[in-house]
Amino acid sequence: MSLKNYLQMAYKEIGLSSEAEVRSIEPLTGTLQSGSENLLLVYGGSFNPPHRGHIDVILSGLRPEVAAVALVILPSEDWHLKDKISNSHPDFFLPQKRRAELLGSIQSIPRARVWVWTATWYPFKPFCKALFRLTKADGFKLAFARLVGPDNLDTKAPLNIMPYAFPGVLVTNRARYIASHFLSDGKPVRWNGFGDWSRSTHSFGDDGGQAGEAEIVLWTCTGVCDHNPPQVVCQDDEGETSQAEVVLGTCGVAFDSNPARKGYYLQYSKHVSTDISSTNLRLDLVQNHLPSEARLNQLSNDALLELLGPILGGE
Predict the structure, then answer these.
(1) What is the DSSP letter of 2?
(2) pTM for this model (two decimals)
(3) How is residue 313 annotated by DSSP?
(4) HSE-CB for 300 with a 13 A CA cutoff
(5) Share above pLDDT 70 across residues of the chain, in percent, rounded to a whole number
(6) pLDDT at residue number 169
(7) What is the DSSP letter of 194?
(8) How far, CA to CA in Å, does 126 sit from each of 15, 32, 133, 140?
(9) Distance CA 163, CA 61 (A)
(10) Positions of E strands within 64-215
(11) pLDDT tens digits for 63-90?
(12) First and final CA of the chain: distance in angstroms?
């Protein structure tokens, strides 16, 4: 069954049916498989501006080792972005709608497998719950996992990622490598609340299609049952510490009464190591191209994509 059909039903159920929302999922070609888990990745971020590091993370999430049915990009809301950049070149500010349009126009992101969430954060949670329920009613097992770079991983609370935590998380070190995430034998360090790591036996070669030993390795781990599990401390939208809704990091979106928690680490032996800084990119763009927010938002999407071409990897 086509995933797109269920996405359309879930959008309709929560009252989202704008032209932008319909257009964003139209190219998707993924199909749900009965009898096996169908993984849907959620990649959240500011994307102000989008750059090659973001694209590397997205493309790594589409690797055959991961076998995700689709990936949704979740741009941060304007209020969150303005707060984040208030002390680091706030003149370069792209509204959420503009960032979504740009992400949907980047040619190197395959729209057959990736769509961009164009609404605010608020309806995303009921959308995911509706999608899970609709697919489950037809006998499909849909699993959600956040896609993150290693700089956004807290091994003490790996599922606690705003705005919504899901029962799974996939970390990829394609664009950034953090040595402390790995033991001396090459295995990832154990996460709090999770068991030991298992290495995938499948090998698909590197990104250039060349087969090679341990070029790209997918590690997986599952949540550990505990009669007295530790509480994870979460923060609300104002940054105030509060009791977690659900223990062990699933504070947010839990679709089953006992959701299976799963961790994935996609390890590249030849990471890109671009370590791109969005702050430095904004500084360069403001100083050399766009001296004001007004000037920035006068540009068409095509003109802005041309300007961002060098940091998008030749778009």
Answers:
(1) B
(2) 0.86
(3) T
(4) 3
(5) 81
(6) 97
(7) B
(8) 11, 20, 10, 19
(9) 20
(10) 68-75, 114-116, 141-148, 168-172, 198-199
(11) 999 999 999 999 999 999 999 988 877 7
(12) 33
